[in-house]
Backbone:
């Protein structure tokens, strides 16, 4: 426990006011041995695991390989918010890097919460209450997803989706490293695990 406290203090001392060009985020899970044996489909396994709290969430600077955040919890919006909040805490206030994630939709909400602003909407009527501002991404926010389609344990399709910003702006950030849109640096190969242990 004392070692953990010292590590947290060390992290708080060194990890702050960072200026980074990009951040990759991902949530990792253990694959059931039943999937490998073909007893259940990968979709069924993920449905089971999504109810499990044992997802490892990771945020990394792919250029320096610096771990910005690591946490364990369920695959939920609350956890996405928590991880993005931690990342926002270690970045400099004026830093809005390119964010790269998989297709998990809750990242969008989490990023918009931390890197968004209320934009007033024009009145449609001269009288009455003013419309509520719409929460929109900050002008400099760049966010792209790597959306993978897997069938029968085979990767059959990979799509790149720019959510905030433009494809040109995203490619410009990545071109400095000679990269394309991906989350390869933060991904970890799934670890085999007995179905009985995972369901218990």
Residues:
């Amino acid at each position: 426990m004392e070692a953990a406290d010292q590590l947290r203090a060390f992290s708080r001392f060194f990890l702050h006011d960072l200026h980074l060009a990009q951040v990759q985020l991902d949530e990792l899970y253990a694959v059931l041995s039943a999937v490998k044996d073909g007893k259940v489909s990968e979709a069924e396994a993920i449905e089971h695991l999504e109810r499990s709290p044992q997802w490892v969430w990771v945020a990394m600077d792919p250029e320096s390989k610096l771990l910005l955040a690591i946490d364990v919890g369920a695959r939920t919006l609350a956890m996405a918010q928590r991880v993005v909040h931690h990342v926002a805490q270690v970045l400099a206030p004026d830093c809005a890097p390119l964010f790269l994630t998989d297709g998990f939709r809750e990242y969008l909400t989490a990023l918009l919460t931390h890197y968004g602003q209320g934009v007033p909407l024009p009145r449609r009527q001269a009288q009455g209450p003013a419309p509520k501002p719409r929460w929109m991404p900050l002008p400099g926010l760049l966010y792209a997803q790597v959306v993978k389609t897997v069938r029968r344990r085979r990767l059959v399709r990979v799509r790149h989706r720019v959510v905030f910003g433009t494809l040109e702006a995203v490619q410009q950030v990545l071109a400095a490293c000679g990269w394309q849109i991906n989350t390869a640096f933060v991904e970890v190969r799934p670890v085999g695990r007995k179905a009985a242990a995972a369901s218990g």
In short: Residues 148 and 198 are 24 Å apart (CA to CA). The first strand starts at residue 22 and ends at 28.
